[in-house]
Amino acid sequence: MIHANGKSVYRGIAVGPIVVLKKDDGQVKRRKAEDPEAEINRVNAAVKQAQEQLADLYEKAVKEVGESNAAIFDIHQMMLEDEDYLDAIYNTIRTEFVNAEYAVAVTGDNFSEMFAGMDDEYMKARAADIKDISIRLGKCLSGQSNGGFESEEPAIIVADDLTPSETVQLDKEKILAFVTVHGSTNSHTAILARMMNIPALIGVPINLEEVETGMQAVVDGFEGEVIFEPTDDILECANAKMQEEQEKQNLLKSLKGKENVTLDGRKINIYANIGSVSDIGYVLENDASGIGLFRSEFLYLGKSDFPTEEEQFQAYKQAVQTMAGKKVIVRTLDIGADKKADYFELGKEENPAMGYRAIRICLKQPEIFKTQLRALLRAAVYGNISIMYPMIISTEEVKRIFEIVKAVQEELDNDGIPYKLPEQGIMIETPAAVMISDELAELVDFFSIGTNDLTQYTLAIDRQNEKLDEFYNPHHKAILKMIRIVADNAHKCGKWVGICGELGADLTLTKEFVRMGIDELSVAPSMVLKLRKVIREMDISSD
Amino acid sequence: MKKFEYVIKDELGIHARPAGLLIKEAKKYESKITLSKDGKSVEATKLIAVMGMAIKCGQTVEVEISGNDEDAAFDGMKAFFEANL
Fold it and tell me: Which domains, from first to last, does chain A contain?
C-alpha cells in the first residue's frame, strides 16, 4: 500500500485501476544543420500542422467543456503565430546551425522559464502552455503522434504532469480521476478537471517508478489523498463513500431547475450570499434564483485606497449582467468591527462591534457613501439590482440615507449620466430595528434579517468568545420571536422580508420560517439545493 | 501619434484570454500599437510579450498608436479596453 497527499481540485471519490502516463524522456538531439533554410521550412510546415491539430482540439473542447474553457487552445494557436517565439526559433537555427527540433526545444525552455520566473501564480502556470505548444511542435517535426492513452476500461490517470492538450485528448468516458506529481490549482488541467467533474489531485509527491499501470487505487478528493493498492477495508469504505456521494449528486441534480415550493403550494425564494464577483459562478451552478446578499466589502478590503466609482460600477455591472435579470441585492459598505482597511483610518475602539461601522461611517463620511451609490445607480441600468443598507437603528437614519440618494440622483442628472433608482431595503440586525420595524416598513421596499448580528446584539454574546459557547443558543426563543415580529410588520405594509444570516440555512428552522411567511432565504451557494429539497418535501397545511 | 492611459479593471489582469483578444484587435490595424507599463514597452501584436508584462488589476497601462489608421485604431483599442479589461 502506498499512501500520498496532494492538493484536491475537485471534491469527489474514485476507485479503480490506474494508468501511468510516462513522458518519453523528452531529450532532443542536437544535430548540425547544413541548410538552415530547409530547417526553417520544416518549422513552418510543423507550425501549420500543429495549428490544424489545435483547431480540432478546440472544437472537441468546446463540445466537452464549453467555449470559455476551450479558449486556451485558441491561445495556443496564437502563441504558435507569435513573432517573438518564431523569431527565436529561426534565429537559433540560423546562428547555431542546428536542427529544427533542437531550436524548438531550446526556445520553448527559454520562454517557459520567463513565465515560471514571474511573481504571479497565474502567469507562472502559463509556463505549461509554452511547454505544451513546444512539445506539440516537436512531435509534429519528428512525425510522432499526439495521441492520448488507450485503455479498455475506465481508469485513474497518474502522470508527472498533464498539459492542457493531453487532458482534453483523453477519452472522458475512460477517466475516473487525475493524479499528477506536478501542476498548480491554476493550471488548465485543474480547471478542466473541475469542469468535467472528475476528482483530481495535483502536487502529489509519488515516485512514478513505484506505481504501475493496472494497480488498484483510491482517490479521495475530499481528503486530498490517494492510496495505491488499498486494503480491502479501505476499498470497501471508499466504495460506500462513493455511492453515498453519487446518490447525493443525483438528488441535487434532479432538483436543479425545480421551483422552491412546498407540497401544499407555498413558494419561497432561495437566493445566494456572495463575497465577490467571482463567486457568481457558484450561484448559477447551484441554481439560486438571485443574489440575496452581495457583500460589497471585497471592493474595499485588501486595497491601499478607496475603490473608484468606475471600479465599483464595473463590478456591479458585471454582476447584474452575469445574473441576467435575476435579482442582485448589494449591501452597501459594511466595514468596521472585525473588517478593517487601513486607509479608512478608523482608529482603535474599546467595543468595535458596537462602534463606528457600516451605515454610521457612510452617514458621517457621505463622500465615501456617494461614490458607492453613484456606482450602484449607474449599474442598475444594466440589470435587476437592489440596494440594502446595514446596521439601521432608526427611521431618521433611513431618511438621511434617502436624502443622500436624492443628492446623488441630482448629480447624475446634472452630469447627464444614465441611471435607475433601484429597490431599496434595509438589514434588520439590531433589536432597535426589530422594535420599530412597523415604522421602518413604511419607509423601505424590503427587509433582510441579518441573524448573526441580531443574535449577538440580542443575547449580548460575543460569538468570537469560546468561553460563552454554553450560553449561546442560536435557536433562542427571543430571536425567533423577533423574526416573527419583523415578518408580520413587513407584510402589514405589503413589503417582502428575507433572512440572510446563518439561520437562513438552518434546515431545522426552514419549516418555521415558511410558516412565518418569510419570502426569501439567502444562503451560501452550496446550501441552495439542500434547502430546496427540504422545502419541496414540506407540507404546512396540516399544522 | 495618439495615446491613452487605462486602468485595468478585470480582476485577473491581462491574462491569457483577454491578451489573445487584445492581439486580435491590435492586428486589425495597420498602425503600430505599443503597450507600456512602468517604463517597459511591448508591441500589442505580440501575445507572449504582452502576457509577459503580467499586467494586473488596478495597474495603469499606456497605449500608444501611430500610423495611417491611427484614428480608427485609437477608437477601436479604447473601446476594446473598456469592454474587456
Answer: 21-142 (1.10.274.10), 262-536 (3.20.20.60)
